[in-house]
């Protein structure tokens, strides 16, 4: 597969190992230029910007949003986006769905689980290979989320995309993706995540061949780091571990396509050049990546199984305090040391909806059936918990300290009930036998 790194400005990729260069910090205000002198000093909008570039602001929040949450970035680019934003025609959205999308499937309420979606042989890239599994809330109202999976066997190359309906949280599960954005280049493999802001143009290339991963499309308030409460000033995800790309542009004057999803509809326009032509930028509305293995878990050190909210990496708040529009929660490697306790997740009915995936390894509540690349959906108030075998073993085992190694599961947890799409409800894809994993749970009531 051709990787279009040569067309990208040299500053972006390290000559040493070909990897992108980054700046550190979460929600920082960054300033970066791919060509010396491209970034204006002191003013955002000079009468004539350096190198004759166009100045353009991308607003991530209302102009008047409070300072602590205000997001915007200034681009200094070869052409302004007005030249990228004309002549759109609607095209079929393929398997992409956007909330509200509640009636595509009439599956009865149940615990749902799917095996990994196989990467097809037919050509597909990140965009054409994007399939929606479930949606909740309403993109028109900027509430809720969608859970998607991407399967891709070719780079987007000359195809570009931006999403109006929400920011995108990419969770690679198989193989590396190289995300070229207006702000620069990000590489991410399994165990890493990428956040692409709403409205930011990008493409995904595959430097190492076919790839698969999960995507949370967040229609609501932007993902941010959760409060740590009594944990204090450290642990969980630390801001300095988030990486934003240095500026890099694609100097490509050959035909390209720009796709846009807006209110669930997909549009395309033809461009005579790449829309990734930002030579310098500054601001705090930027894509970032984060290595989930840098998350410092805090857990129970004496007894009982804490709520999984202790493993929240990022949260999107809703208007109800403590009740997330979406939480991105992980189940990373960790020691489990609790005494006199049932250590796996407890049986529960959660008013929030839980979409789970497994990046690698084994998930302790479901060592069988929930495999890397697979996913499960336990919707609002659908009972679930460890399978029968795990229950028996965990109830009897000798409680020595144990290390759960080589594992990384995650959950998109939302206050909005999730509706499976017609695609995800197809019988051949859905694991109809999933609820049988609880069949062996016998009556328990020892009165004697
Ligand atoms: O259902 C799941 O596997 C996710 C989960 C894990 C846990 O440790 C506690 C609650 C919970 O929903
Ligand atoms: Fe759960």
TrEMBL record:
UniProt-listed PANTHER family: HOMOGENTISATE 1,2-DIOXYGENASE
Any single GO CC term annotated in Swiss-Prot or TrEMBL for this entry: cytoplasm
Pfam families: HgmA_C, HgmA_N
Biological source species: Bradyrhizobium centrolobii
Domain of life: Bacteria
Cofactor(s) the record lists: Fe cation
Taxonomic lineage: Bacteria, Pseudomonadati, Pseudomonadota, Alphaproteobacteria, Hyphomicrobiales
Protein name: Homogentisate 1,2-dioxygenase
Catalytic residue positions: 305
Domain Homogentisate 1,2-dioxygenase C-terminal: 293-445
